[in-house]
Amino acid sequence: MVNAILAAILSFIIPGLGQAIAGDIKKGIIFFIIALVLGTIVIYVLKGATWGYIIDLIYSIYVAYDAYQMAQ
Question: Whole-model pTM above 0.85?
């Protein structure tokens, strides 16, 4: 069993890593791919709009929360 706080921190830094170390590798890969797509959309489509980065931050917080819940 992995520490829930560590899983949340790792997943906040690299989305999906916390899920992967908590035992659900498939979910971790899916979250990572979503983060890559979301980041690409913010950079290239939204041209780095501030609210795009806020969406990225909200997604990172959600993924970290999910990793925390999984690791408990």
Answer: yes
Cβ–Cβ < 8 Å for 35, 26: no
Among residues 36, 29, 27, the alpha carbon closest in space to that of 70 is found at: 27
| CB environment 7-28: b (16+ within 10 A), e (fewer) | bbebbbeebbbbbbbbebeebb
Encode pLDDT of 50-60 as tens digits.
Answer: 888 899 999 99
35-41 own/partner pairs: CB under 8 Å, 24+ apart: 35/59, 35/60, 35/63
Q: Please state, in angstroms and rounded to a whole number, the distance separating the CA atoms of residues 35 and 39.
A: 6
